[in-house]
Amino acid sequence: MKLFRIAAVGLALASFGALTPVQAETLKVGVSTGPYSEILEFAGKLLKEREGIDVKVIEFADYTLPNTALAQGDIDLNNFQHKPYLDNQVKTRGFDLVAVEKSIIVPLGLYSRKIAKLSEVKDGSVVAIPNDPSNGARALLLLQQAGLIKVDPAKGVALTVADVTDNPKHLKFRELDAAQLPRSLDDTDFSAVTLNYAVAGGLDPKQALLLEGADTPWNLWFVTQGKRKDDPIIAKYIAVYRSPEVKEFILKRFNGTIIPTW
Q1: Is CATH 3.40.190.10 the right assignment for the domain spanning 25-106+217-260?
Q2: What is the pLDDT of residues 86-111, one digit of tens each?
Q3: pTM assigned to the model
Q4: Given CB 3.0 to 4.6 Å as the disulfide criterion, which of 84, 105, 174, 177 pairs with 259?
Q5: Has domain 109-211 been given CATH number 3.40.190.10?
Q6: Whole-number Å distance between alpha carbons of 72 and 62
Q7: DSSP annotation string for 49-78
Q8: Helices vs. strands in the chain: H and E counts, helices first
Q9: Where are the chain's structural domains?
């Protein structure tokens, strides 16, 4: 009888344990190298304080890797890309990844070590732009905003250099890996550089010839696997990220060079 009672208690405890939620593993958030990680880490500290959930931010030097890591389940979500880049990755790589919420605007900028303003762009100048499809199109649209070129409006965000319809300054385009663009400034007249690589390369966004503004459609998104788009822990982290406290941190820390979308 005593053994039966012990067994019964053990069975009850086992059943209770099966019904009790297991403490979630550390939430792993991927990001490309640069200033974004500071914001993700700040939000992670707030989530730990409020919900007891640990957050680990993982930086990738190559921004082609965070989506691969996410698709393989090595990380839980990432925050480094705009929607056109994600759409291109899903189409070309077959990833089951979805955008779940906006985060920040990280302006693409035109930088130079040879000129101080756009009016100094000379005929035949060499300009470097990112060689990936979405950021290459983004750079061409910024050059159009600068009044330096015109592009085919029918192409939308699928622009390539071949879609430049008017080039009065006879600009010569050099398409490079995004991480190489800051270094290209010694060999080009100016370059279109995303902010993460600009900061990592020692460039000052305040000294850019031109930066995208708050009206740009190229904001970053939180992205996760399709099957986890409603994951409550991911939702809690994003909610903390999009809080007034994090917004204040962004505005003070980055002095307007990174723009919250909320």
Answers
A1: yes
A2: 998 999 999 999 999 999 998 999 99
A3: 0.78
A4: 105
A5: yes
A6: 16
A7: HHH---EEEEEESSTTHHHHHHHTTSSSEE
A8: 8, 14
A9: 25-106+217-260, 109-211
